[in-house]
Amino acid sequence: MNYSDSERILLSSQREGQVSKFRFWVMLAVPLAAILFQVYVPLFFQFLGFLEMPLLVVVYFALMRRSQIHGLMIGALVGLAQDSLSKNPLGMYGIVDTLVGYFAASVGVRFDVDNLFLRLFLAFFFFVFHQFFYWVMSRALLGQQLMFEIQRELIIGLLNAVVGIFLFHFLDRLRESV
């Protein structure tokens, strides 16, 4: 879909409306580090088991690239890699992260995603969306009777959003200057 400048909401400067570019090693190393963090850090520090670093990385890259195709690809690749290293059935994170990547990129097309509060809200929203959709997929595709505790997910979503703000700030420094 092609949007004119008058239809874009909250885009105030030329830099905010442009697609962010990243070096190849950043696009490879950051998701890999996030997946390895997700797998190995909770083994030694159980209190960090609530962090969904691969999801935060998918949200960030999809928002910054502002392309639904790139959002789909990063979500699918990170999700499938995450599935391959987890105990979950292959494809569950792949499906959910692909949807998150697509919707995050769609939001990135329309909004100024360099805004701190919008980033906080989007990290929170996409975490809750991810958890809810994973729950739906587990029940529908696998017939598992998982519990979805909304209060717990909201609190963990807020914690992930706060961590996401710091992660997004760090990843902003890895963007290529145009």
- In terms of per-residue confidence, which ranges show pLDDT below 50 for 5 or more consecutive residues? 5-16
Shape: globular
Number of domains: 1
Biggest sheet, spatial arrangement of strands? 1-2
Summarize the structure.
By secondary structure, this protein is mainly alpha-helical. It has helices at residues 24-44, 53-65, 68-85, 92-110, 116-142, 150-172; strands at residues 21-22, 175-176.
Describe this structure in words.
The protein has 178 residues and is mainly α. The chain has one domain (21-40, 51-176). It has helices spanning 24-44, 53-65, 68-85, 92-110, 116-142, 150-172, and strands at residues 21-22, 175-176. Strands 1-2 form a two-stranded antiparallel ribbon. The longest helix is centred in the last third of the chain and has 27 residues, at 116-142. The protein is globular, with a radius of gyration of 16 Å. The two termini are 24 Å apart.
